[in-house]
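== Fold encoding ==
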Amino acid sequence: MDKIVENLKKQLEKPKITTTEENEFDLFTKFLREGHETPHQDAATLNKKLHIPRDGALGHAHHHFTKIPKFYENIPTDPLGRKLREEARALFLHRKSQEIISSDEANSLLTLLEENASAPLDPESPKINYDDFMRVVQKATPAIANLFPPTIFADLYQNDPYGRVRILDLYQYTMRKMWYHHSRMGLSLYDSIGQGYLRESDLEDYIYELIPTMHQLSQLQETFYKFYVCTAVRKFFFFLDPLRTGRIAIPDILCSGYLDKLLELREEDAEPDDLEQNWFSCQSASKIYTRYLQLDKDHNGLLSRDELAKYNSSTLTPVFIIRVFQECLTYGGEMDYKSYLDFVLALENRNSPQSLRYLFQIMDIDNKGYLHPGDLNFFYRGMIQMLSTRPLTDIPPFNNVQNEIFDMVKPVDSMRITLKDLINCGQGGLVLSILIDIGSFWTYENRESLIPQTSTKDDSIHV
């Protein structure tokens, strides 16, 4: 009897392979050998090529040969497929919107955090340690719990001797995440293709429908909506799409900070100075468009080379203006409002990588990918041409200017300046400005005489 039990145990311990699996695998291997085996190819070589294991696991090997998973799906073009995809996206977004925490949940979290503040208590700035915080998370709703993995507590920790985190920081983090998810959901509704990015027309629709909700845009006339939307959209695409792909990823829009500036216009008590500095404000957009109309002397809606030369009190060199029209998109040799906005954004933000890329492409005459002394001399001759008409006696020779430029940039190649060199040096905007803008050139040349005046003013302010 004992021997029978031992034999049964041995039989149970052996791996069971069904005859069906063995037969199917043998037939599959036989088929491949008949169709592909060469006279000099043995079974071991074939098994190695087919990745067939020597020691078994036939069932798993057979499973790997049955199907190659599809990793890319084309967007359907037929009406029924497109409609089905739209409905599926709508249901998906609706389900995701229900997972977003509400303002009531956030306020409830704040109350729980304050009730469970950790000792020693500080009424002005209550704090909470990790153990008390985890008890609060367990009491909160599942949506709140999903916002707080353990790493968040560690990220917000600021060397408190009792291992605590400020409750205000936790609450602000919650509100920020709530804003992020709400904004992402709102932008996703305008993603007409459903690929996670917005095209120019998508972003135009979003901003156009946003205008009536903006308190600071209440005085905007409806006839100006078209130009306002164009002005707002250009800032997004100039800075977030410098390679001109025609689309921007939704997370890039949310993380850039530009959407925050746009949504600030909902506030009723915004400061006038802040509105003046905000590109998306009614004041700023009106000022930019008014300046464009003032430059358009023939009132044809486009700017010629001579008209654009009057920009910024005619401080830009003629050589630079010629290169702008050679590189930018024009219509019959004239610039439209959209190209003008790119031009303005580049000159008003000269130290940003996107502006440096814009200006670099204009100054890279032969599209070589770098600037050599010949390119610098070409633009400096245009500067000399302007300086000769001004009451300035001393015009520094080009060699001096070239040496100063290369000293500021410190390029990797001593005779070439690349876009990367300009960005890394931190003074790229100044370097290009002294070659294209006579105002910037004069300020740079007289910097030593201007510093004492500036310091004197500062001393008088602090006295």
In short: The chain has a mean pLDDT of 83.
